[in-house]
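note to self: the first set is below, dont mix up w the second
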Amino acid sequence: MPEAKAPLRVLLADDHVVVRHGLKLLIDDQPDMTVIAEAGDGETAIRRALELKPDVIVMDISMPGMNGLTATRKLRELQPGAAIVTLTRHTDDAYLQELLRAGVTGYVLKQSAPTELLQAIRAAAAGGQYLDSALTARVTAAFVGKQRKTESQPRAAVSEREAEVLRLIASGYSNKEIASRLSLSVKTIEAHKANAMRKLDLNGRIDIV
């Protein structure tokens, strides 16, 4: 018989004990994942993530001390390969854009069905990205509206290398990983990304995706 695959190791970061308890029950009830640690603030989340190296970190935004956005940015610096799923009540685009720029691989609303979080955890662990279905339609509509608005405007041509960098970013790779993959410096990757985004009038990771 083939050896059973180890369950995904999940770290929960949320300052509400009751919420963490409910999330732990939900996750531990899945045969392919388990909660290995919990944190009530951003600093503790970073420390536990560096110690335990979980497969996925589920991070709330609003926490005392270091909030989830700051913790996400710091953790991506210290552990670039970390898969972070944001779990929040915030539905506005500003939070979404900032967290995608910070490097989250999933964005799920607390008011959505539990299956959204489970799908996001699995997607993040597999190296993909996940956006809550409640936000997908709105983001798509905004992108289509923006595309229609600008389609009559001339655009500078994107080079083959710039297009390649955008494709890798959309696939979930970090700047450091792309630099290694293309045998270029991180600064060069950042320059290609900035040039391509300026030419295509893109504002963040969700536009690239």
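second set (the one i keep forgetting abt)
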Amino acid sequence: GTDAGVDPMPLFARLRYRSRVSEDLTLGAGVIAAAQRFRAVGLSNLGMLVADGNPDALSDNGYDLSYGVGYQLGALWQASHRWTLAAGYQSHFSMSEFDDYSDLFAEYGAFDIPSTLKGGISFMTTDTARINLDVEHISYSDVDSIHNPIMNLLMGCFTANPPVAPETSGCLGGPAGAGFGWEDVTVFKAGVAFQSDDRNTWRLGFSYGEQPIPSTEVLFNILAPGVMEYHFTAGWTSERPNGNVMSWSVMYAPSKEITGTSTFDPTQTIKLEMSQFELEFAY
């Protein structure tokens, strides 16, 4: 009977240090302070599925804040004049709970930030052209409120199936509360940058990562339909005669959809579909 949705906003502040330990090797480390702002609306009809039996901290409570700290490690190796290799790791962030939404997220409002592991190779094909190849693994399984399947409601929530599981651990907000069911994602990226002259640099990029949502998890992911897999990018940077710099870039992610059956009503089929377009300008 009303609009439903979520509004998440993360903020990161990084303090980094790097040291050139040899002519070819640079190491880096950093501390990251993180904050998250979150709001959910229109979810009050799920009140019968909360672990504590009182859905006051489920929906429509305005914005709530969460805080945490993590770290980064990285290494850059200049293997030769043309070849560069790099690797980096960002830790899992244990964030403070969203108290105003402790009936929505597993572990009483916990919504941590998953760890990521990255590696890359950069190669100068000519003196004016460079190819970059990266791979990144995002461990959504680090975070119960993102990774836990919706079936936890049916298998571990007394309000959903009392004869089978007369306890509340799988209810919304419980220690094994249902989540979005996201799986880990590995993203592969390729990019080319080349200079047409001393003032102009052109860039092309591509990435692919299998979307994280199984077909069994479409119901909750109406709120978080992160189904994109392919991204195509292009950019141009130009140094103007007056010394200023102008940049344009564009990103396009073609339409992707997944279809599945509603967990609460097997007669319903849910389709999630998304496409994205982004245009940026800087001067």
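remember for set 2: The first helix runs from residue 106 to 109.
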